[in-house]
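Researcher: Here's the sequence for the chain we discussed earlier.
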Amino acid sequence: MKKWIPHIVCAVFAIWMLSGSKPKEQVDGYKLNEFGQLPILHGGRVQPLDSYARNTLLQIRGKQTVSLRRERDKRDFEKTQDPSLVDKILDDDGDSMSAVHWLAEAAFDGEAADRRPLFEVHHPELKSMFDLSEGRKYFSWLELTNSIAELEHEAERVRAIEDEQRSPFDKQLARLHRAMGLYHRTKNSFRIEGSPDFAGELELFQQVIPAGLKAAHSGTDPSQWNSREIAILSELFQRYQQLKGMALPWILPPLEKTEEGEGWANLGEGLLRSMQTAEVHPMAMQYAKMATAWQKDSAGDFNNAVSGAAGWLKSKEHGNLLKKAGMEVKFNALEPFYRSMVVYVTALVLVFVYWLNYKPGFRDTAVWLVGLAFVAHTIGLIFRMVLEGRPPVTNLYSSAVFVGWGAVGLSFLLERVFRGGLGMAVASVVGFCTLIIAHHLSLSGDTLEMLQAVLDTNFWLATHVVIITLGYSAMFVAGFLAIIYVVRGVFTTKLDSTTGKSLVRMVYAIVCFSTLASLVGTVLGGIWADQSWGRFWGWDPKENGALMIVIWCAVILHARWGGMIRERGLMATAIFGNVVTSYSWFGVNMLGVGLHSYGFMDKAFPWLMGFVGSQLILITLACLPWRYWASREALAPASALNGEAKESDGNAGAGGKALAGA
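Model: Thanks. This is the structure I predict for it:
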């Protein structure tokens, strides 16, 4: 029975990972899944409403769901809001609202959406400015609009301050201002906010357009025109002109099939175009019917409007957009990277348990789980490549995903050769950490965004980014294997001689691979640069960072071959490779200069510095004399055990004594 336990555990996790592949078909009778598959244009690419909703919520709330549990008390709400709404709010309970459900509510019932605890406010001064409760973290739009004028004034002040000079209060105020602006524009992207019957309004608009156009082109005295129709048309023109400047996603596709991404319009622009064509865009009418049906709580009418929108898209040969949007919705529901993170952590716990009792069942289960997570990780990468039509690395987010994938694959191969759980530990740690990094990068917006102009792709770019990113993966694998050697050697007695020698061989082999991948990737990058920019090398910070990895790999290998470092020295230099690689990967983007300066996040800087600091501490531990190592009996040479004064592991000269002693 025991031999089946790893398979059973893996099967349970596989079922859990697949459970998200089918989103709810209906919520309270509304076909929100089909609504979420309707394509729009945003951020330069066609995407489903489901993706827009998720990315918007991430930017506003930091999560892809909205809590339905009430996060305010009656007293706080009554201070600034209409007391008649309190009872309705108090009845609001449940677990969470999906992103597409939230989008539908925000688009078609702004009053209800305004009461959701959506905006994060935790700075005491900011809470004081809005007179908010100290015991809460998230607040609604209605609770914040009482000080909107002061917020606008403060935001104007903050805009004049450089990012690095902003205080924590300034940073959170700017973030809150952006989040509220994004929310307000999203609410006004599908209908005119406050319109009780948007479908009826567009039908009236459709009726008065011909009369208005006829009067405008008749050449008669304006006093002879039908004043009622002209007044209606004039009022609606002003409303739609305002909507044009506010609506964010472009939800109206071209009336005829064109190249993907061409001919789209936001709702306001599309309605203004109707005054020239004398016909309201069919998709605008369908969205208006959805809005009216939602306000009347008519799920049947809402579903009919959604089906009507999908049918019109198919009739105009936009069926490929629906198909692609449907694939992306399935990818969103599957959440392969989030679920892989959970499995990686579980596998790491099992590896730790295995190291405590050395029962093979725990290691075998960890191997199966890492294999399962790696499959999900791979499926996620392939899905993204198909959706983008691009190589796997196109921005910082995708590079984080790919670095983790490459590291897990290399670690899996190491585990097949050396066993002992070492490869699985590195796979779990690096896989989890890189996906966490990717998650935080996703908070800035759409991760399937169009390529940066500097990355206008060709064959050499595609091969360059893939190979050099594999070099990043390899360096991190070597570095984390070295961390295992140092931590287990210094703090435990569990690192025996056989395991220590296996770790040394693994680190050496991975550094050799990283040297090759980094060198080839850098050369391919030079070829691409020569074709794109007319020069092979320009000492750009990103180019210098890539060269630093190659040079540091060469330093490690030459120091090892020359006897300047041995086991502990190899581990110390491999750990410093984490520092070099992290700088090349993220640090150069923070300089804000160079052709490769893209994807900057100021929040990443303290985390990067913290990571560098942790690596320097580990390097210091690696260079400690043998007497401070708990596993010194198994690892230290006889000369070191006989006396620290004779510890030399290979004479490195005066300049390299610390590492040579390692």
